[in-house]
Design brief:
Layout (H helix, E strand, L loop, with lengths): L1 E10 L2 E10 L4 E5 L6 H9 L4 E8 L2 E2 L10 E4 L11 H11 L4 H15 L14 H13 L5 E5 L7 H17 L3 E6 L2 H7 L2 E6 L2 E4 L1
Parallel strand pairs: 3-8, 3-9, 6-7, 7-8
Antiparallel strand pairs: 1-2, 1-4, 4-5, 9-10
Helix pairs in contact: 2-3, 2-4, 4-5
Length: 212
């Protein structure tokens, strides 16, 4: 479940206020809206990356309004992946578990699981500069899922991809969300993309979120 109630968030001089909506447990929610309408600001507040001025946020672990990002149980895929240029694919997939001090055999097993599921086995020793756009986005997805979160948040995950890569990454995201029973919030301004993914479609318009 993802639930926000009367949420007000600021990003510089920009402000989104009194936003409320809910995505049921296990559902794939898509939030649409024009560029600059505040979709990413809302997503970042849910992930703990923006200070909430007022209102409350609930996730499967309970009310998390004031929790730091690492405690929220969210896997976050930012726009265009944003990978570490000096790290290999293997190191990206191991990053979250290593930060959480998993034992080495557990990390190795999780990296192998993710690499197989995402079709990255042959790319584990490559760095981002040697990857295609679709491959980079699959690595970003794997990094987000590495610590087995219950919630997945994606900010325009397909916007920088060509048509071929977009279809490939779409299939991977949908499959993994279903297999792992994730509750997802996916940001986009693309109506076709929204129709492909959404169990629950929401629209941000004039500062308010409403069902589509």
């Amino acid at each position: 479940m993802i639930r926000v109630e009367k949420l007000t968030v600021e990003a510089g001089s920009f402000r989104v206020e009194d936003v409320s909506f809910e995505i049921p447990t296990g559902a794939y929610g898509v939030l649409m809206g024009r560029t600059g309408s505040g979709k990413t600001t809302i997503l970042e507040a849910i992930c703990g990356l923006r200070t909430v001025r007022s209102g409350r946020i609930w996730l499967p672990s309970g009310e998390v309004t004031d929790w730091p990002p690492g405690r929220r149980g969210i896997g976050f895929v930012p726009q265009e992946g944003t990978l570490f240029g000096t790290k290999t694919v293997r190191q990206h997939l191991a990053f979250g578990p290593a930060v959480r001090k998993w034992a080495a055999p557990e990390i190795e097993k999780r990296v192998a699981e993710l690499a197989e599921s995402l079709g990255l086995e042959r790319l584990l020793d490559r760095k981002p500069e040697g990857l295609s756009g679709g491959e980079r986005q699959r690595v970003a997805l794997g990094r987000a899922l590495a610590v087995r979160p219950r919630v997945l948040c994606l900010d325009e995950p397909l916007s920088a991809l060509d048509d071929s890569s977009r279809g490939e990454v779409s299939e991977v995201i949908q499959r993994l969300a279903q297999e792992q029973g994730l509750t997802a919030l996916h940001i986009t301004h693309n109506r076709d993309e929204a129709r492909i993914f959404a169990d629950r479609l929401l629209v941000l318009e004039n500062g308010k979120v409403r069902p589509a």
